[in-house]
Amino acid sequence: MSADSEDEFMSGMSSEGGFEDGNESDSVSFGEEFEDDEPALDFGLHDKDITSAPKKPYEVDFDVFGPRDIQKYQDKQIDEVGAILGQPPESTAILLRHARWNKERLIEGYMDHPEDVLEKAGLGLAGAVPAKTMVVDGFVCDICCEDEPGLETYAMKCGHRYCAECYRHYLSQKIREEGEAARIQCPGDGCSRIVDSKTLELLVEDDLKDRYHELLTRTYVDDKDNLKWCPAPNCIYAVECGVKKRDLNRIVPTVRCDCGHYFCFGCTLNDHLPTPCALVKMWLKKCEDDSETANWISANTKECPRCNSTIEKNGGCNHMTCRKCKNEFCWICMGVWSEHGTSWYNCNRYEEKSGSDARDAQAKSRQSLERYLHYYNRYANHEQSAKLDKDIYLKTEKKMTNLQSSSGMSWIEVQFLDTASQALQQCRQTLKWTYAFAYYLARNNLTEIFEDNQKDLEMAVENLSEMFEKPTSELAALKVDMMDKTSYCNKRRIILLSDTAENLKNGSWKFNIDINTA
Amino acid sequence: MAGSQRRIAKELAEITKDTPEGVTANLVDESDVYRWSILMEGPEDSPYAGGQFKLLLTLPVDYPFKPPALKFETKIYHPNVTNDDKGAMCLGILKSEEWKPSSKISAVLRTARSLLAEPNPDDAVETSIAEQFKNDRKEFERVAKEWVTRYASKRA
Ligand SMILES: [Zn+2]
Ligand SMILES: [Zn+2]
Ligand SMILES: [Zn+2]
Ligand SMILES: [Zn+2]
Asked: Are A113 and A128 part of one and the same domain?
């Protein structure tokens, strides 16, 4: 993002008083707090593109980093903090890991009570002892019970001494099998001293050292709130984003990893714009718990007004008996049968109290079910269609090759198909989530605009999707048309997302549930 | 590994010499040092008093770098012991994060017995028993005692 576009974004925010009015003053808006307390993980690898378009309301700032960048950045922080604390790098590394990389808190705490901080991080007992193994007369290893003279032994500053062989085995097991790195404790029973890097350098074999550093980088990212691993399988990149957890009801921080995967930085699920994480979580849980759908009953079943079990109407008789609780009731009015006397053939007791209560409850539950299914079917439909579109995407390449040979177009010229199918995927993904969003949306004057935008995007998507059905021979002639339809789809998506994001940011949407407790 | 056998033999000798209170330990089979048969007396002043519980302690091949496993073979009504045929006891020291290669079996047995004297409902594996322990201690003790009579009486 260019500096200008960011300023614009920030000033737009501050004119509305920021996200957390009157709340913690350290958080005015996304990204800013992060940039205040530490510089971005930027090593000039990510040139800011000055010509890029101004940021859209639903876009967030983020950066993508590889393992080496993260390692370098860790080392830089260790050096900086070590210089302030007057501690060697290996101790500083332990202190920082113990403080979960919150260097301000670490420095502050250390200035007040250095011994406390050292003790808690397992670095207690001052006085440097060089890391080396030694032979001790009359030594018996408490782990393996070996007492052979000349046995190499090792202890950290805590003095818990074991034979070097046991120490090695312990460390390699922790690293290799338990994937532990930053917080391996002394093998001594009840000793919480953390194994420092000098000890590891001395005792751990080289192949394990690589694994150890890999694990340390993992823990570093895991510990930092503004860093997350890309959830794509086998992806080695981490993404940095300044959006805080408390902001997630106001923005959907969608990021794109260098591997091409779009995901939500808030919950690491696949791109779920425009729906905030909390609603996504609720929606997925609701869909998973498909009892509601399973209980979906046709017009021929009703729930027993007493025990709620489902009863099927067979034949024309309105005198129903619940198989489960033996309750007898009238199918038409849901009232207790005994109140009907002999007029069962023509229920005229529609206003009877016992019946109207049951009817209300039934109508309500049915109505809410039907409402859910309305949105669910559309949500599921787009999910399904996206899969079908994916098949098309896979066929696209084949088509492109065909097209190249039949039309004499170059590879660059047939790129429009690839662009089109990618746009289709992304728009379907967005559309899918608009239905989950709409399900939780309470009506107000903004809902209509939202629904119009949804409809427009839907039409644009279906129009583009149709183009792929055309025979390959016609595709070349349709290039301009297809490119137009693609850019129209993208435009409609941007309009929908911008509108939704603006309103979310301003707190203008009203939801039919409490999004804050989700 | 040979080291592991040596260590186990030493621990067994120590336990036989200086037995933790209310506990006896023997190998299930003299030729297999990795399986220990434990008899544990229910602590006095606990609903388990008068009961005798049979436990199986299994040591991993990589002992003492990996923690032992402890299993109740006698049924017991206790919030920290699974109420199934596994009879697994939830003990902090048996978790790989807490276990250290220098931790000892005698400490495991002592901790296990003290958990009989004082259940830890906040770290329960049987939540309904834990709820009862917290809210209806009388009924909890009644059922626990009943189970002792039914499953853990000494002559059985
Ligand atoms: Zn040893
Ligand atoms: Zn120690
Ligand atoms: Zn990735
Ligand atoms: Zn999310």
From this structure: no
Beta-carbon pairs below 8 A across chains A and B: 43
Q: Give the whole-angstrom CA distance, residue A442 versus residue A187.
A: 58
Asked, for residue A430, whether it belongs to a domain, the answer is yes
Asked casually if ipTM beats, i.e. exceeds, 0.90, the reply is no
**Region label for B99, one of left (φ > 0), alpha (ψ between -120 and 50) or beta (otherwise):** beta
Here the CATH number for the domain that contains residue A153 is 3.30.40.10
Of A144, A186, A188, the CB nearest to B7: A144
Domain hosting residue A199, numbered range: 124-193+195-223
What pLDDT is attached to residue A44? Answer: 38
Taking only the tens place, the pLDDT of each residue in A360-375 is: 777 777 777 778 888 8
CATH number for A408: 1.20.120.1750
What is the pTM assigned to this prediction?
0.62
Quickly state the pLDDT bin for A20 (edges 50, 70, 90).
very low
Number of structural domains chain A divides into: 3
Active site residue B90: yes
Phi, psi (degrees; rounded to nearest 5) at A65: -130, 145
Residues from chain B contacting residue A165 (CB–CB below 8 Å): 3
Q: What is the 3-state secondary structure (H, E, C) of A404-464?
A: HHHHCCCCCCCHHHHHHHHHHHHHHHHHHHHHHHHHHECCCCCHHHHHHHHHHHHHHHHHH
Neighboring chain B residues of A185 at a CB cutoff of 8 Å: 100
Same domain membership, residue A307 and residue A177: no
Ligand nearest to the CA of A195: 2
| Co-location of A50 and A139 in the same domain | no
Query: Cβ separation of A169 and B102 shorter than 8 Å?
Result: no
Between the CA of A192 and the centroid of ligand 2 the distance, in Å, is: 7
Domains of chain B: 2-152 (3.10.110.10)
Which of the residues in chain B have pLDDT under 50? 1-2, 156
- The verdict on A336 and A452 lying in the same domain is yes
Q: How many CB atoms lie within 10 A of CB A90?
A: 18
Q: Kindly state whether residues A117 and A128 are assigned to the same domain.
A: no
Instruction: Determine, for residues A170 and B104 on separate chains, whether the beta-carbon distance falls below 8 Å.
Output: no
